[in-house]
Amino acid sequence: MKRLEFNSNWDFETKEKKINNITLPHDAQLLDGRRADSAGGSGHGYFVGNVYEYEKRFAAPDEWKNQHVEILFGGVYRNCEVRLNGKKLGDHRYGYTQFTFDLDNALEYGRENILQVTVDNSKLPNSRWYTGGGIYRPVYLLIGNRKHITFQGVKVTTLDIDPAKVRVQVAANCGDIKVDIIKDGNVIANTVGADSEVLINDALLWSDETPELYEAHVMLYENGTLVDETTEKFGIRKIAWSNNGLFVNGKETLLRGGCVHHDNGIIGAASLPESEWRRVCILKEQGFNAIRSSHNPASTAMLEACDYYGIYVMDEAFDMWYVRKTKYDYGMDFKECWKSDVRTMVERDYNHPSVIMYSIGNEVSEPGKPEGVEQGKEIVSFIKSIDSSRAITGGMNLMIMSQYANGKGQYDNVDKEQSASEADDGKAKNASLFFNMMASFIGPGMNKAGNSDKVDKLTSPILDALDITGYNYANGRYPLDGEKHPDRVVVGSETFPYEIGKNWDMVKKYPYLIGDFMWTAWDYIGEAGLGAWSYTGGMPFNRPYPWVLGGAGVIDILGNPDASAGYAKVVWHITDKPVIGVRPVNHPGVRVSKSVWRGTNAIESWSWKGCEGNKAEVEVFADAYQVELLLNGKSLGRKKIKDYKAIFKTKYQPGELTAIAYDINGNMLSRSSLKSADESMVCICPEKDKYEVGDIAYININIQDNEGIVESNSDEKIEVSVEGGELLGFGSANPCTKEDFTSGEYTTYYGRAQAIVRITENECTITANDGNMVVEKVI
């Protein structure tokens, strides 16, 4: 069937507002803003809930009478009902899986049709983080003949790689099947039949280093006439795992991973394909070769980008099972819906070579008791019945399971109403807050909470049901499992980023430990202040309004890496040069409030206007024996590297800061420098040189000098306007602000802000006004 975009000219309405002719996908929750008294609290970033009504009018031409039409929703958050011409097509509860409805029996041909979608995201909290709301992933029409290939009815399986052999299975409601295998536009092999095998000579294999993609062009014939066709991309690759490691195409592979939430920063949860591709590209450039989709199935666009760039994916099904973590979350629907949602995820993922693991859940407490173990085993068995080619894992927190087994579960009774006195006492309104509070106090000690024989015995039934054991914050288990569980394969499914040096050394040391996924690779909305270092005081969790971002990402919501990302690049040997990180020097005498999820708040900047003489703490990351730091040519001394890091203290003065790495014999290995900005001003910096109508443009709006050096201590409130385009969002990475991504006004943060624009005309002009000067740029 043909897939047609169905995203334009929707009307949108809530009790408070009505907007005509919007283009999907969008994030409806952004439109209602934030309030200190939001029922979602810090977990939702103080955004509020609502009921969203959508309507789209469209013509159904007469030729559709003899065709089959379906509608595909990539993702709707949450609890939606779909009606066509007043007839209910169905509903869907989970916010993160795609779904389709057959339109044939409700379409009125040759006249206008009215499609209506009601989305109920009014009851908060329904998640532990910011979810966004409404139709936040793309919508498509699927149109084909009555006799057609089933949607997602083509499965391509790699049977062998030397020589390459694939199996092509096709689900259709009639006819004969022919398949052409295409590489770079050329047919290189073909086969016939609904279930056939085909050899591919001189095949190029897919991996993170060689993301080679093929196409299977599948044609359906009825009595010799072509009645339907579809094309599926796939990669030829074999994955295997054992206590000797993870192997892709026979090569041992270590996962340089990061956890990633689904929102896209200043446009909220809106899953624009361009946004997903950009994020994957930046992650790859920063040295990541793996993503954990936390804690829900990734968007299709993200998987397509991972296929293209070569990123391994752990696609995760759920954050909760039947024990709710917040009052109104998916735990209410789990028992009724989990099978259909798991099936949807696995069937969609099947042809994506990037997906190498399915995760059955994140930090679920249920396996602490026998019925929970059985539930986990049932999910594992169900996935294997659909796809036996991939590994199954889970993000398992040993402390959470053991406490649940002892009747002290963090997620017990979250569905109960609170009394006014309980709320006044400041008790956590959802279990996530309690867990984050506990983790903040325990800190890295949580890594040892699963080391005891008692916890090991309790958790082994569910861990042994998995192909690969996923440990959340349990790196104390890594050295133990080789002896206690010699057949176990382990992955660090969630870890503290500042422990990347220690963790990666263990990944290299223990063959059964196949990788590490830090929390988090990319910052996100919600869990406000969880990982942020604050100069305004307060506890490092559940920060009050107007905190909005988690602050835990080594890449901020705009896509800018910090020094922690550089630390990982050093540890992973992505760079052989020292990385210089500078903790902000513009808060003299103020004690910073730290978070257990972040080991530093340093950024790669030596440009702090007006901070001359302030104390400066400089962190140098290097894979070397010693490092020397020079300020304006004067040595500040040499220090030995420990855990890939050395710390220097000095006083800020503008100029050039240089780090030189040495080996044990005193020979220079490499060097790198940071420079202060000269006279800086507002600069409009599109990320691409050329855009076409319909493109999504990411435009960085920075305070920088003529050489592109960003000034970190001269932030300005900027007003942005667009002619010839639509401003989709404008903001910065400030984790604590009352400013609004949809207003067109925002203050830079450490000199950086960003606008996201949909180009609507051949000439698009961006204007930035900081109150002193107006800057324009035509893109």
Structure description:
With 779 residues, the chain is of the alpha+beta class. It has five domains: 2-145, Jelly Rolls, CATH 2.60.120; 149-234, Immunoglobulins (Immunoglobulin-like, Sandwich), CATH 2.60.40; 259-527, Glycosidases (TIM Barrel); 574-675, Immunoglobulin-like (Sandwich); 681-778, Immunoglobulin-like (Sandwich), CATH 2.60.40.10. Helices cover 15% and strands 36% of the residues. The protein contains eleven helices and 45 strands. An eight-stranded parallel beta sheet has the order 27-26-25-24-23-30-29-28. Strands 3-2-4-10-7-8 form a six-stranded antiparallel beta sheet, with no helix packed on it. Helix 2 (300-309) links the parallel strand 24 (290-293) and strand 25 (312-316). Helix 1 (273-285) runs parallel beside helix 2, helix 3 (334-349) runs parallel beside helix 4 (370-386) and helix 5 (398-405) packs across helix 8.
| CATH architecture term of the largest domain | Alpha-Beta Barrel
Residue-averaged pLDDT: 95
Shape: globular
Q: How many beta-strand segments?
A: 45
Distance between the termini: 36 Å
Largest sheet: 8 strands, parallel
CATH-defined fold name of the largest domain:
TIM Barrel
> What kind of assembly state do the chains in view correspond to?
single chain
CATH superfamily of the largest domain: Glycosidases
**Category from helices, strands and their pairing:** alpha+beta
Question: How large a portion of the residues is in β-strands, by DSSP E?
Answer: 35-45%
Family: Belongs to the glycosyl hydrolase 2 family.
Pfam family, one: Glyco_hydro_2_N2
Domain FHA: 190-253
Protein name: Glycosyl hydrolases family 2
